[in-house]
């Protein structure tokens, strides 16, 4: 693999959700330890599954992986990081301030901005604190899906600029006395990320247009901030074979045509391809095979259509269409096809004569590319963090800033440059979308799981603050209350019939249940078992799906749909109509 040749100390694996970043990062860590290197594998994804891959609990402390001598792992747990961050701020004044004031400070530090900063501080320590990473030859970062990762890699510069340009509002960073220390750490992180001798970015995609377009955008955005040492890895390429499976042939032809038409900005970068494998990348034995050629000859064990539930997506749409309005949120792990499923549901409801607003909270989503056309009754939008933040700043300056003098307006404008402003802006845009669903259907394609949970955390924080201000005996409705009402909101969990996406969907369901939000249905997308391939490689992958489907039906949901894998890319309204 070219991307592992002469590997620098820091390697970042990024790309659209579901392209195999975790598998490649884990296999890379394994390969480097086989060379006698000491490796630290770090996940910055709020929905990390590195622990699942190696079959052990990791968490927020550096943990040795017993099965792989020389390998340690760390999952930057946002909640644990935020709890430790809050304690560093509140601990010194506990016992000195009244309990009411402590409770207020705690509430102010409970939002997703605090979570982001706490996680980010741990991330920068791994780039700049020699004591933390002493003894490791390489530190590999398995990052969150692209939109979240681009923000993570931009933050060192954002915070450095914020601190350099003015005092701003120190509340997001903690005690004022710590600002200079933070400034030094952030500047050190900028230097480490921009140094090609120390840092390499590995842009991971599958041989599909959307993930490739995503890493092309990522390449440009990160190169513009000085992160130019980039490699491309195309994962899951179906190898050529001499079988006569029409589905396999169609997939192979589609992939090769896409690879022959790579975005121009990617062609000049060092490039690797990884064959699609028959088994899931869970466990050391499986990871050892990832960088080798696929085994095309091992036969499947079963081939019975009766083993796959007959559960078309159209049945779920029929239930949804019985109402004339409501919020439908498609959630799940990156790469499971939330955008496609959300778009298909929106198209089907619009065709039934309902007014539908299709939108996304995913910084990396492009609904217009999926639809590739227009339809009566269907409106499409995107909660763009940059646009939402700019609009929010304009509203605050026009409102709160209207009665301030020139110096006051200058101070307010400086405060609004804080990266934390984005949290508030995106939450407000999301709240408006929820409110709109009282009049017609709103279908939301959400960001991958971890990012979505941070948004829901902000929703919960807002609810608690409103409840505290309004008092117990006051009637009010917050966005969280609408999400908790099954008559107003239908949560659709989208997953694949694979172990990791299914476990993550189950974990998301548990998290939502604890927040009083009850998922309405599961959609198992891109099922090979439901498509009944004859290729030995694809049949082995289909075999592995059957047990996952059984588990979903038996343990997770009594309302579900199974969508077969399509031979062509699901782009355009006619292709989306075919799913229903």
Briefly summarize what is shown.
This protein has about 575 residues and is an alpha/beta fold. It contains 24 helices and 15 strands.
Any descriptors?
alpha/beta, Rossmann fold, 2 domains, seven-stranded parallel sheet, 24 helices, 14% strand, globular
Written overview of the protein:
The structure is a single chain. β3 (63-64) and β4 (71-75) form a beta hairpin. Strands 3-4-2-5-1-6-7-8 form an eight-stranded mixed sheet, sandwiched between helices. A seven-stranded parallel sheet has the order 11-10-12-9-13-14-15, sandwiched between helices. With 580 residues, it is α/β, with parallel strands linked by helices. The chain folds into two domains: 2-287, 3-Layer(aba) Sandwich (Rossmann fold); 314-577, Rossmann fold (3-Layer(aba) Sandwich). It has helices spanning 21-34, 50-54, 78-90, 99-108, 112-128, 130-133, 146-165, 179-194, 209-224, 246-260, 264-267, 284-287, 313-321, 338-351, 367-371, 385-399, 406-415, 421-436, 449-470, 479-484, 499-514, 528-531, 536-556, 573-577; strands at residues 10-14, 39-43, 63-64, 71-75, 138-142, 199-205, 230-237, 271-275, 326-331, 356-360, 378-380, 441-445, 489-495, 521-527, 560-564. The chain starts with 9 loop residues before the first strand and ends with a helix.
